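Hey,
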Amino acid sequence: MWKEDRYGCLGYRAPMIDAITQQKEELKALSEMDLVELLGRPDENQLLDRNQKIYAYYLEPGPACDSSKSEPRQLILRINAMGLAKETLIK
């Protein structure tokens, strides 16, 4: 259900916020491919210098949704140049 809820528009991700918050440290050191397999393609991504990436998954309805919040919560993952998640946070 997580993967089908792009940008959090369907509301499937919101009930999972507590579980994600408790398990976010477990996402560290997963490979980029493992993350995409587990969570699906990110809702947003950024390429940083030194081949680092930021993946963002909306936990609440994001800007692409009809019922979006002004500042929806997101799961943010920083992926290093080796393709491993090095930082996770809920923003």
